[in-house]
Amino acid sequence: MKRTIALALSLAMSILFVAGCGGASSSAAPASQAAPVSSEAAVSGAPAADAGKYADYPSKPVNYIITASAGGGLDICARMLAPYFQAELGKDAVVTVSNVTGGANWVGWGEMMNAAPDGYTISNIHTPQVYSYLNKSLKNQNTLESFNLLCNCVTDYCLIAVRADDERFADVNDLKSFAEYIKAHADQEFLVALTSKGGADELVMLDFNKTEGITNITGVNHSKGISEAKSAFLGGHVDIYSGKVGDTLAGYKDGTIKVLGVMSNERSKLMPDVPTAIEQGYDIVNGSSRGIVAQPGMDPELKEIIVSALRRAQENPEYLKAMEEAGYEVDYMEGQEYEDYMKAMEAVVIEYADELGYN
């Protein structure tokens, strides 16, 4: 089975989740303000709960917790999805998006976990940040089983790139020739721009280096995130960029960045002419995945109502078009497929636990 590896761990900020912990910074906005919904979208599906003991669900607003500040990728994706999810729940449904920050996501996740499993509180989950519970020094008692996985929404896949004007890599156009060049210059150290320690971009380079037996690529973490890492790369302060499709798209389109391979199972719709790592003989799939979770104690019948609405929302052509135009790739998964995916990503983090400082 192909290995799947996942997106940016905030190790330095991760803390132990304590039930009922305070310090959350929260704001809420009606989903109707997140993105316009056409009349067609509003009637695209029948209400999920049209029979049975949940025939009246939802009878009050559904709180969709985002464990990050407003305006970031997690928040934007949630606010784009919310109105379509709301429409699929039924004409009287209301979905609000709340930003609950702090504790490297665990304040928001704690609020979700402490809520009743009644379908009125859900939250985002994203990788590999969620796997911070594996860091033994944090003594976090949570596991993947602390979350009831509803579905995955988006995956921003990782990639390896060089600058198009870097003459050293003039004849390097794929991952194999890249590896050969690096190993042929073993007396030199090559720097790669990374975001935070333990992010998906670092996991990609660790996996690639291990596969090829490369020892002369060194990661340089940038505490201010993607913008700082990309600036260092484009400014020539580092040699290589291990980033993601979304943050590399503009440079790929204008020709300043040469993408050597994308770490996805299938070619990115946003970079269709770039072969995947798998196509090039590397069993590496890596990306920043963003999904939705609830409490483990939720009634399976209620869970199916919610998941069905989320599924239909993410099949809506209007939503898919909006996401593509915004540079986000919808990567819908649910059920066993999603559980297997999350466990596979966790296994990769465990594999590199020593390098990540988790043990």
From TrEMBL:
<dbReference type="Pfam" id="PF03401">
    <property type="entry name" value="TctC"/>
</dbReference>
<dbReference type="InterPro" id="IPR005064">
    <property type="entry name" value="BUG"/>
</dbReference>
<keyword id="KW-0732">Signal</keyword>
<comment type="similarity">
    <text>Belongs to the UPF0065 (bug) family.</text>
</comment>
<dbReference type="InterPro" id="IPR042100">
    <property type="entry name" value="Bug_dom1"/>
</dbReference>
<feature type="signal peptide">
    <location>
        <begin position="1"/>
        <end position="19"/>
    </location>
</feature>
<protein>
    <submittedName>
        <fullName>Tripartite tricarboxylate transporter substrate binding protein</fullName>
    </submittedName>
</protein>
